[in-house]
Amino acid sequence: MSPADNPTVEKIPIAISSCLLGEQVRYDGGHKHDRYLTGTLGQWFTYVPLCPEVGIGLGTPREPIRLVQIGDAVRVRGVRDAELDVTDDLEAYADAVADQIAGTCGYVFKRASPSCGMERVKVYTGKGMPSAAGVGAYAGAVMRRFPRLPVEEEGRLNDPVLRENFVERVFVYDRLRALLAAPTPKALIDFHTRHKLLVMAHNQEGYRRLGRIVAQAGRGDLEGTVAAYADLLMETLTRRATRRGHTNVLQHLMGYLKKPLDADDKAELVDVIHQYRAGLVPLVVPMTLLRHHFRRHPHPYVEGQWYLEPHPVELMLRNHV
């Protein structure tokens, strides 16, 4: 049930490039309205629109800008007016809106933008073809200041795996903020316990390292321990969960059903998990069967796992991965 259907459910705040909401703030006076963001995800997210180029006073329409290699540095300069350099202004704007960003659980940037692109932005050298190795000046400053914050570009959200990964991280980050606001050893242990299988699907080494951090809860600097946990958790979740990783978790979950299931049910579950591992069916298929069995045979540990429903089922994100 979305917040629109249930007023008691609060939408999660997400920072976003203003043009993606349909605001006419582009250099040419246009916009890049993304209906998936405003329509589908907009049922669950409330957006904090930010346009750094307008924010630093460039106006609309305006002189187009681009990334330019100047010696060892990359600067943001005007396309027609090479004397226009807004690099420092864009980086300073990230500081100016830091309080607004700090109140969000993610950021969706406009792809390919010299200010907002998070990767593969064209960098011009004056010789030959530009390289696609740059990062927008403002986006880079934001990511350096908020390394835990889930970030993505609207273009990359067309990839089902990247889309599911971003939305999952946003919901985890929302819960993580509550832990950071009121840290206790018990709260950290409970948080980690409920996220174990989710982390396991992403990276086994990260899973083990997080466990070692949690083992320090109650010894010494609690805030430092929780901060280290938060850093590693969000870093680990940026690694895409593979079919192999999910299969490992699915088999782990099946282990809790060995006693109650009969031979036919076990064989069916094994077959469906193998189909998923082979790429024949999406993740939603084995997950639906597992949830069916756990409704019939509840297990307290499994019931508490966020892996079973890391984001609203209405978004159907696991139907495509």
Keywords:
alpha/beta, elongated
Layout of SSEs?
Blueprint lengths: L11 E6 L17 H6 L4 E6 L1 H4 L9 E6 L2 E6 L8 H10 L1 H5 L4 E3 L11 E4 L6 E4 L2 H9 L5 E3 L6 H22 L3 H18 L1 H11 L7 H16 L5 H12 L8 H15 L6 H13 L3 H4 L18
Parallel strand pairs: 1-2, 1-5, 3-6, 5-8
Antiparallel strand pairs: 3-4, 6-7
Short summary:
With 321 residues, this protein is α/β, with parallel strands linked by helices.
Fraction of residues in H or I helices: 40-55%
Q: How is the largest sheet built, in terms of strand order?
A: 2-1-5-8
Number of strands: 8
The proportion of residues in beta strands is 5-15%
The low-confidence runs, each spanning 5 or more residues with pLDDT under 50, are none
Give the helix tally: 13
Distance between the termini: 22 Å
Shape: elongated
> How would you sum up the major sheet?
4 strands, parallel
Query: How many distinct folded domains?
Result: 2
What structural class is derived from the secondary structure elements? Answer: alpha/beta
Element-by-element helix/strand order: EHEHEEHHEEEHEHHHHHHHH
Mean pLDDT: 96
Radius of gyration equals 22 Å
Description of the molecule:
Strand 3 (65-70) and strand 4 form a beta hairpin. The strands form two sheets. The protein has a four-stranded parallel β-sheet, with helices on one face. The chain has helices at 35-40, 52-55, 87-96, 98-102, 137-145, 160-181, 185-202, 204-214, 222-237, 243-254, 263-277, 284-296, 300-303, and strands at residues 12-17, 45-50, 65-70, 73-78, 107-109, 121-124, 131-134, 151-153. It starts with 11 loop residues before the first strand and ends in an 18-residue tail after the last helix. With 321 residues, it is of the alpha/beta class. Helix 11 (263-277) runs antiparallel to helix 12. The protein has two domains: 12-59 and 89-120 and 134-158; 159-321, no CATH class.
